[in-house]
Amino acid sequence: xxxxxxxxxxxxxxxxxxxxxxxxxxxxxxxxxxxxxxxxxxxxxxxxxxxxxxxxxxxxxxxxxxxxxxxxxxxxxxxxxxxxxxxxxxxxxxxxxxxxxxxxxxxxxxxxxxxxxxxxxxxxxxxxxxxxxxxxxxx
Length: 139
Hints:
This protein is 25% helix and 35% strand.
């Protein structure tokens, strides 16, 4: 886990990490949300709808924004204030997602950051874009 302070950060700074989406992750997300949409839960239904595999819950994908802020940029001193998410392409069980955050704004007086968030699959296709707004607790 990174421990960047506001004085360590600069516009253009980036951090990246990757995660492979597993069936176990999907099951745990279901256990929490009870979202039983068959697009996520039933391989045959997903294929009938024209998808190659079960579509990953969008909010499971979006949850990696929390990991990005809380572990990577800035890390330990992060307090997520808000953000926006855009699902560009479906993510499928078995995909490996690379999550990149780039600082696009810093306000040192308010201990505030904005990150542009991009996620790409193993084919380097953009599957997600978003904006993450964060406070940095240690000033």
